[in-house]
TrEMBL record:
Keywords: Menaquinone biosynthesis, Methyltransferase, S-adenosyl-L-methionine, Transferase, Ubiquinone biosynthesis. GO terms for molecular function: methyltransferase activity. This is Class I SAM-dependent methyltransferase. It comes from Thiorhodococcus minor. It comes from the Bacteria. PROSITE patterns: SAM_MT_UBIE, UBIE_2. InterPro entries: SAM-dependent_MTases_sf, UbiE/COQ5_MeTrFase, UbiE/COQ5_MeTrFase_CS. The keyword Glycoprotein does not apply.
Length: 262
């Protein structure tokens, strides 16, 4: 008698392949790593000038709203240059409790300016830590750059301790045509222009155009929350801090306190 095949989990990509940047989904991860490595030296400078309301104060408040507190062990997925990680350390009061993971060594090289934190190369779909290692996981504007939301969210759930909390910050495409057009013009048009005028590398302008293109076709909030729920998270919600900045989404969730394994 033939044994039934084990059903493989369905891959849930954050957006369709953007083939004008890479030829196939297989090449996506290499493209993303390369463009972030190339633009790392410009990233903080451009982001600080054009933060769209998501600067340090906003990030810190979002972490507090999601439940980050001193004494927690914190994981920053897609840590990049450490913009969100720095705010987490301010809340924690102890850099040794903060860990960052990113597939781009070029970006993480800049995060090493923050003493005491642990930085590890890796990806969201295969987090290089044991089950139940952290009390809090955050991801700041990196969700659109991973390959499989379902696998990543299962990994988030696995490495969280029972009762652990999750905070994902992301830019959501506005629903209104006018708002969408204005945000597109800002991110895809004005930001690349200002990047070039400020002396940034040519690839930095391309990165911000790529940013908008991923935002424009990213999975809607309802789907993201559904995938989080399917991964085991409870109390999943989308928080919008200010109606005027409704494109800034904070996705929150927690792991059941009764969970004994990932």
């Amino acid at each position: 008698m033939t044994e039934p095949c084990e059903t493989q989990p369905q891959i849930v990509a954050p957006h369709p392949p953007l083939t004008h940047y890479y030829r196939s989904e297989v090449e996506r991860a290499a493209f993303v790593r390369d463009i972030f490595d190339r633009t790392a030296p410009d990233y903080d400078r451009i982001e600080a000038l054009l933060a769209l309301g998501s600067g340090g104060w906003y990030r810190r408040q979002a972490l507090l709203r999601a439940g980050l507190a001193p004494g927690m062990d914190y994981l920053d997925m897609g840590v990049g240059t450490g913009i969100l990680l720095r705010q987490a350390v301010r809340v924690l009061g102890d850099a040794s409790r903060a860990t960052g993971v990113d597939p781009s060594p070029g970006m993480m090289a800049l995060a090493r300016s923050l003493p005491g934190v642990r930085l590890v190369e890796g990806c969201a779909e295969r987090i290089p830590f044991a089950d139940a290692s952290f009390d809090f996981i955050a991801m700041g504007y990196a969700l659109r750059h991973i390959g499989d939301l379902s696998a990543a969210f299962r990994e988030f759930h696995r490495v969280l301790r029972p009762g652990g909390r999750l905070c994902i910050l992301e830019i959501t495409r506005p629903e209104g045509r006018l708002s969408r057009g204005l945000l597109r013009a800002y991110i895809r048009g004005m930001v690349p222009t200002l990047a070039r005028l400020s002396g940034a590398r040519r690839e930095s302008a391309r990165l911000w155009r790529y940013y908008w293109d991923t935002i424009d076709v990213c999975a809607p909030p309802e789907q993201l929350m559904s995938v989080l729920g399917a991964a085991g998270f409870q109390s999943v919600r989308r928080h919008i801090d200010t109606p005027a900045l409704s494109f800034l989404s904070e996705y929150q969730g927690c792991k059941s306190a009764a969970s004994q394994k990932g």
